[in-house]
Write a structure and sequence with these properties.
Layout lengths: L2 H5 L5 E5 L3 H7 L4 H18 L7 E8 L7 H24 L3 E5 L7 H13 L7 E8 L1 H17 L27 E4 L18 E4 L9 H11 L12
Parallel strand pairs: 1-2, 1-5, 2-4, 3-4, 5-6
Bound molecules: farnesyl diphosphate.
Length: 241
């Protein structure tokens, strides 16, 4: 490993909005699902690149609460892709010491998929390498609403005093309660918006919007972004001493 990689101060938690699968497929005259399959193959490459740059947490946006608005064919194809991906990758992820978690609302997902998700979480719970979090049926507003509902229930049941509610309280109810906030959020495909991803958690994140479509996003490009992150000056609202 080169010295400039070893000595740089990289992001501990990287979150990625994997956008552009549909356009990638259309450019090739293929159905959109062809792009999603190509996109799924990229995930492993990026997970494997994380340790080279000191990245401990990788969170990827696989399916949003808004993605149900897509055609029935695309939604069913994506759900089947997720089932196949988990089944196919489970053992490799465990063997590579990757701890997998899912965030998002599981209520609307089919029972078979949910049991595969539970199984994969359980199977990798002891892993101490990269923390891979897959956002599936995830929306930042939905997450905050679900968290607020649970918090309100704790108040109603007398477990929480409203006077004790502050900025540290709500994150304990979020799906991401065991994760640090993302240091860097990357979005591929040239779109510069956050699309309801990690709204609370990314308050002080750095952003990188790159033109590359997700199926073309390589470990090399990921590595360049990790290195350029080291040059950033994060002040979290304060001024430099
Ligand atoms: C956005 O591209 C991508 C998605 C909605 C799905 C993301 C899923 C994957 C990358 C594959 C599976 C992931 C896992 C974890 C197995 P888009 O369809 O909006 O592309 P477009 O903007 O070009 O139409």
């Amino acid at each position: 490993m080169a010295d400039d990689i070893r000595s740089h101060k990289g992001p501990r938690h990287v979150a990625i909005i994997m956008d552009g699968n549909g356009r990638w497929a259309t450019q090739r005259g293929r159905p959109r699902l062809f792009g999603h399959h190509a996109g799924a193959r990229r995930v492993r490459e990026i997970v494997e690149a994380c340790p080279d740059y000191g990245v401990e947490y990788l969170t990827i946006f696989a399916f949003s609460t808004e993605n149900w608005k897509r055609t029935q064919v695309e939604v069913a194809g994506l759900m089947s892709l997720f089932r196949r991906y988990i089944t196919k990758e489970a053992r490799a992820l465990r063997d590579e010491n990757v701890q997998v978690r899912f965030i998002g609302d599981r209520v609307r997902l089919d029972a078979k998929l949910v049991s595969l998700m539970d199984e994969l979480e359980l199977m990798t719970a002891h892993c101490t390498g990269i923390n891979l979090t897959i956002a599936l049926n995830y929306g930042g507003r939905d997450e905050v609403a679900r968290a607020t509902k649970r918090l309100a229930q704790d108040v109603a049941d007398g477990r929480l005093n409203p006077r004790d509610v502050n900025e540290e309280t709500l994150p304990k109810y979020l799906d991401t309660c065991v994760l640090p906030d993302p240091d860097l959020v990357i979005r591929t495909s040239g779109e510069a918006r956050i699309s309801n991803f990690l709204l609370w958690q990314s308050a002080y994140s750095e952003y990188e919007f790159v033109d590359t479509l997700w199926p073309d996003f390589t470990a090399g490009e990921f590595g360049r972004l990790m290195l350029s992150y080291g040059a950033r000056d994060r002040r979290f609202g304060a001024v430099k001493a």
